[in-house]
Amino acid sequence: MRNPKLIPTSILAVGAIAALPLGGSPALAAGDAAAGKQMFTTTCGVCHSTQPGVNMVGPSLAGIVGSKSGAVPGYSFSPALKAANIMWDEQTLDKFLENPQADVHGTKMPIKVPSPENRDNIIAYLETLKP
Asked: What is the C-alpha separation between 12 and 74, in angstroms, rounded?
């Protein structure tokens, strides 16, 4: 006879997953900013600067976390991204980086970051760029 006070670990695991915020990822908040900086440099840094006011092919991403889409001064955004009215946070950045064209149809951003781990790391790095 099983002890009714013991809860099987499989039920605990399901409970832990159910406790995540909708659309949440347990690794999202735990990205590695150092790995993200390296990934940013090789993938994103070709088009984006991390220095405020330094726009390149893409806008500067200094302080992007917590800002509104299409609002970096001095950058000519696509009408689609201007109208998207997205507040950039971990979840919205994760969705956008996974497939920008699907998230905001008409955006100029052509690069996808399919790996959840790489997106988590890049987002952790972008969070270090807050003013």
From this structure: 50
Q: What are the pLDDT digits (tens) for 54-90?
A: 999 999 999 999 999 999 999 999 999 999 999 999 9
Calpha distance 39→47 (Å, rounded): 13
Q: What pTM was computed for the model?
A: 0.77
Q: Which residues, listed in sequence order, are joined to residue 87 by a DSSP beta bridge?
A: 68
CA nearest to 75, candidates 96, 100, 93, 48: 48
Q: Check the CA dihedral 87-59-80-23 and report its sign.
A: negative
Compute how many other C-beta atoms are within 10 angstroms of the C-beta atom of residue 9.
8
Q: Which residues fall within 8 angstroms of residue 107, CB to CB, at 6 or more apart?
A: 78, 80, 81, 84, 100, 101
